[in-house]
Write a structure and sequence with these properties.
This protein is mostly helical. It has 4 helices and no strands. The N and C termini lie far apart (79 Å). The model has no long low-confidence stretch (mean pLDDT 85).
């Protein structure tokens, strides 16, 4: 293949780096510059960061979208459950101290169970557990 001679100017630090690379056995300034120019021209149309991280960012974006969707489902489910529970259960009378004490105990047991589940990493739905331990 025919080669064409080019002349150009480099600043001193860059020229020194080129000299150091060309001093290695089997390397020449022409080959180093030809490789560098070819690599630069090949990626000129594309952004190097997009090439390196584009697929990863797309996967992360998809994962975040699924997490957001699942969070909205969980929030809506909890809101509907609370609304349902409040609609079917009558409020306790101010003088019903026994009923309020039982409610406090049940709430404390619920919070303890949630804490235990979160600490152990177990899942009530979709896990290996049967989920009836409340």
């Amino acid at each position: 293949m025919a080669r064409i001679r080019h002349q150009f100017m480099l600043n001193e630090p860059l020229s020194a780096r080129l000299d150091a690379l060309a001093a290695r056995p089997g390397a020449s300034k022409s080959a180093i510059l030809a490789d560098a120019v070819e690599a630069w021209l090949n990626r000129r149309g594309s952004n190097e960061l997009d090439d390196r991280f584009g697929q990863r960012l797309d996967r992360l974006t998809g994962a975040l979208a699924r997490i957001e969707r699942n969070t909205h489902v969980l929030i809506e489910t909890l809101a509907l459950f609370v609304r349902y529970e409040l609609a079917i259960h009558a409020p306790l009378a101010e003088t019903d101290h026994a009923g309020r004490a039982i409610a406090r105990e049940r709430f404390a047991a619920f919070i303890t169970q949630v804490s235990r589940q979160l600490a152990s990493g177990r899942r009530t739905l979709g896990g290996d557990d049967d989920g009836d331990r409340l």
